[in-house]
Amino acid sequence: MRGFLSLTVALILLPGAYASRFQFTLTSRAEECFMEAVHARASDNKVLFRFGILEPKSYDLVDVVVKNPSQREVMMWKGEQTNFETAKVRESGLYHLCFRKRKGASSTITLFYSFDFISAGSRSLTLVPHLAVTISKDAPTVSAYSQMALTTVKGQPVRMGIIEFDLVAVSRSILRDSTRVKLLLTVDRITDGEYVNIALALLPKAVHPVTWEKLEDFATGGYRDYVIDDAITELGSHVAFDVTELFEEKLNNNEETITFLIFTPGDRDAIVFGTHHVAADYFPQIIVEDLGLELMHEVAFFKESVFNLRGDISFVKHRERMSRDAAESANSRVKWMSMITNVVLVGIAFGQVVYIRSMLESGF
User: Fold this and answer.
1) How far apart are CA 115 and CA 76, in angstroms?
2) Model confidence, pTM
3) What is the DSSP secondary structure assignment for residue 223, as one 8-state letter?
4) What are phi and psi of 18, to 5 degrees?
5) pLDDT of residue 64 exceeding 50
6) Residues 6+ apart with CB under 8 A from 289
7) Half-sphere exposure of 169 (CA within 13 A, CB side)
8) Is the Cβ–Cβ distance between 186 and 157 less than 8 Å?
9) Which of 63-77, 117-131, 282-296 has the lowest mean pLDDT?
10) Are 42 and 106 contacting, i.e. CB atoms less than 8 angstroms apart?
11) Residue 30 in contact with residue 56, Cβ under 8 Å?
């Protein structure tokens, strides 16, 4: 009983838990969009989306796209009857869920969608860098401030990103046992493929101006001794690095800044968002996050698992319905073919009787 009450309380208090289900009809080929509000209050925010055509014909197909408030595509399907997906997001605001009928579909299609958002934990502090630049071997005395370009050729980085955060106004008291500090980065472009490995290293001492020339010894190999972690992320998604211990050490030592270097360990070419020409939610950020109760994370995992299970069940039901329709269509054809065959056989028999009777009557 106590476990049930705990689960009930966690479901009620789960931060960022939000769900909706809506049924509607498409009567034209014009795109029809709906909006759902999302408040991305933690580092691990997930959007869960499922859609389907109710009682579809075999030729009823729709194109579906989910866009974030910056109108970037989060999920997309072309020519589908039902599907579902889970995606990590960083941006708060109104997400657009857009549907369009495919050519040749029924005049009226009834659809449904199910939208859910899970965010376990809550931020107590967000830091935006006062410096986010690209240093390049090809331009050793110049820094690029728009975005952070990461390029590695034959195992040697030739373009790297530098991020520096100001810690002057941050108090040590903000850190507690249940607090984690994370560095969030978002990938804007990848030259080849959809995935890239991003590595993070600590720059032990701030250098100004930040150029390849000033950091040449560090950029050409010294960074390897200060690598913190690396992670694989996909295009448009974000990666989170846990920097709690480093952050706490900097505060304990009363240091004014913390500076990181990012690069790609493999021979890849990618762009990471900086602090220009993009929504603030995609800036590099250090967030101080209260993880909350462990039970809430378990409930969030449970909700996501249930959502995925319902999606799998919907897909199985859809395939079963399509198989049933195909079987019923085949049975209908067999029935009509049987009826036609029987009519032909009866006609042949009747014709034979008439023919033989006419022969007998003619005195054969």
Assistant:
1) 14
2) 0.70
3) G
4) -155, 135
5) yes
6) 42, 43, 121, 122, 123, 124, 179, 180, 181, 182
7) 6
8) no
9) 282-296
10) no
11) no
pLDDT tens by residue, 153-201: 988 999 999 999 999 888 888 888 888 899 999 888 888 878 889 999 9
Count Cβ atoms below 10 Å from residue 112 Cβ, excluding itself: 15
Say if CB 220 and CB 154 are below 8 A apart: no
Confidence of residue 35 (pLDDT cuts 50, 70, 90): very high
Sign (positive or negative) of CA dihedral 268, 274, 276, 277 = positive
Tell me, what's the pLDDT at 9?
A: 43
Taken in order 48, 53, 55, 56, is the CA torsion positive or negative? negative
- The C-alpha R_g of the chain, in whole angstroms, comes to 31
Place of tokens 């969608």: 113
Instruction: Report the half-sphere exposure of 86 (CA within 13 A, side-chain side).
Output: 19
Instruction: Report helix, strand or coil for 261.
Output: strand
> CA 65 to CA 45: how far, in whole Å?
19
